[in-house]
Design brief:
Blueprint: E1 4-10, E2 13-20, E3 24-27, H1 39-45, E4 59-60, E5 65-67, E6 76-80, H2 84-90, E7 101-105, E8 110-111, E9 116-118, E10 127-128, E11 131-137, H3 146-149, E12 153-160, E13 163-164, H4 165-171, H5 175-178, E14 184-192, E15 204-209, E16 212-218, H6 226-233, E17 244-246, E18 268-273, E19 277-284
Parallel strand pairs: 6-17, 8-14, 9-19
Antiparallel strand pairs: 1-2, 1-5, 1-14, 2-3, 3-4, 6-7, 10-13, 11-12, 11-17, 12-14, 15-16, 15-18, 18-19
Length: 287
């Protein structure tokens, strides 16, 4: 069934629910006989909706605060250098990978739609944005084939893989540079895979900084497909419900400009992915 899920704060309580007609949310207690405790618990169990649940009246989005969808069971799994033009803007043709390049990003770095990206100005002078499609795993599995991989997807969301480029160079690895507090905006919705009838159809990704287009790409340009990424990640490694896989970023990141155009205090970053929505965040210096 085509659905978009979200987590939110309303009248002093944390909850999750189903987006209705892009302007309201049907809370979990109206959707299930025995509601799961949170969105992760729903992804893990996926109970059936009550008959007539989708006809329920929702709470207007203007009355809620959208929160991080859930805290995943593991750190975010990232795929690096997955778009040829991004590889070229960061280095050279020789850097195009022949196998997936995998890193992790602390789950404690997650921040919600409309939340703050901290500049960490005392730690980095080169904070960059990366608009990405993220895959949400819905069923546990290991040693999967590419053909099997799609059945293990729950849905898709938007992720900003904020990266401190100077720390990336200094430490010769990605974790610290990509795991600063508030450096992983995600959301606002998780669109179920059934929302996209053709699993091969590409997603468009567009990133604006202060209203200026910086990135405009499509997942059709990925070096490694989503089924390939899932299959490779599952070799000898069990993927579990709620795992988040950030699939790489198209060209147009701040470092790719001459001179580089890194994020600064007061910036607004908005990432739109077709069929999912727009993730918007605000950059602020630490006080």
């Amino acid at each position: 069934m085509k659905m978009k899920w979200l987590s939110y704060y309303y009248q002093g309580k944390q909850n999750f629910g189903l987006l209705k007609e892009e302007h309201a949310v049907i809370p979990a207690e109206k959707l299930f006989r025995d509601p799961p405790t949170d969105l992760l618990a729903y992804i893990e169990s996926q109970p059936e909706l009550l008959a007539g649940a989708l006809a329920e009246t929702g709470i207007p989005l203007t009355e809620i605060e959208i929160t991080v969808p859930y805290l995943p069971p593991n750190n975010v799994i990232g795929i690096g250098k997955n778009y040829p033009e991004h590889v070229l803007e960061m280095g050279s043709k020789e850097d195009i990978p022949k196998e997936i390049l995998v890193f992790t990003k602390s789950k404690n770095a997650l921040v919600a739609d409309k939340g703050v990206i901290k500049t960490h100005q005392n730690v980095t002078n080169a904070l960059d944005y990366e608009g990405e499609l993220a895959v949400i795993i819905g069923k546990a599995g290991s040693d999967l084939s590419e053909a099997e991989a799609v059945s293990h997807i729950f849905g898709y969301t938007i992720l900003n893989d904020v990266t401190a480029r100077d720390l990336q160079v200094k430490h010769k690895q990605f974790y610290i540079a990509k795991s600063l507090d508030n450096s992983c905006p995600i959301g606002p919705y998780i669109a179920t895979k059934e929302t996209f009838p053709d699993p091969e159809a590409p997603f468009s990704i567009r990133t604006l900084v202060n209203g200026e287009e910086r990135q405009s790409g499509t997942t059709a340009d990925m070096i490694f497909s989503i089924p390939r990424m899932i299959a490779d990640l599952s070799k000898g490694h069990t993927l579990v419900p709620g795992d988040i896989i950030a699939t790489g970023t198209p060209p147009g990141v701040g470092k790719g400009f001459n001179p580089p155009r890194y994020l600064k205090d007061g910036d607004e970053v908005a990432i739109t992915i077709s069929g999912i929505g727009t993730l918007t965040n605000f950059v602020q210096d630490q006080q």
